Amino acid sequence: MKLKYKIINEKELYSGFFKLKKLEFIHQKHDGKWTNQVDREIFGGAHVSALLPYDPERKEIVLIQQFRAGVISRYDEDYLYEIVAGIIDENESPEETAKRECIEETGCIVNKITPIQGYFPAPGSSESYYHLYVGEIKSFDGERIRGLESENENILVKSYKVKEVRDMLKKGEIKNGLALVALQWFFLEYLKD
Fold this sequence. Notes:
With 193 residues, the protein is of the alpha+beta class. Helix content is 19%, strand content 38%. The protein contains three helices and ten strands; from the N terminus they run ββββββαββββαα. The chain has helices at 94-106, 162-170, 177-190, and strands at 5-15, 19-27, 38-44, 47-55, 60-65, 84-87, 112-119, 129-136, 143-146, 155-161. The strands form two sheets. Strands 4, 5, 6, 7, 8, 9 and 10 form a seven-stranded mixed β-sheet that branches. A three-stranded antiparallel β-sheet has the order 1-2-3, with no helix packed on it.
């Protein structure tokens, strides 16, 4: 059934790095009846493009680590393992953003890009939509610090053998949702044993 709803009122509550708005709405139920008024605060979502950097020759995956304010209240053991991601600029395609962000965050040029899927990461609280890709790159030895100084980014970048990353997944060491989705797809669909 196609979504049917009526917005009664929409109010901006906050506008900063993120936006927050309040929606008052009703929607049609599965039985065809309408709900009473529902009030929800929704984060103004980012239109994001993300990429899992993979070197098919060296069989390595590049992962990044950076400070994330959203984990402060629940997790302070270590930086999260993540993949490349960034907000899509105006007049930029999701694929162009993924390639640009890969260079900015890892220093690696994407030689081939394959779409994984687009999805809503938290539709109950955010308008965000993510485009997800795997990108073939040339990995490197050691570690790098990357990121845009103008955005206060300080990103640790490192290449890991595919087996190391698979083991990290099995041990529950990957806690970033975007990285989990990309890596699970990678091991199920892209890199078949």
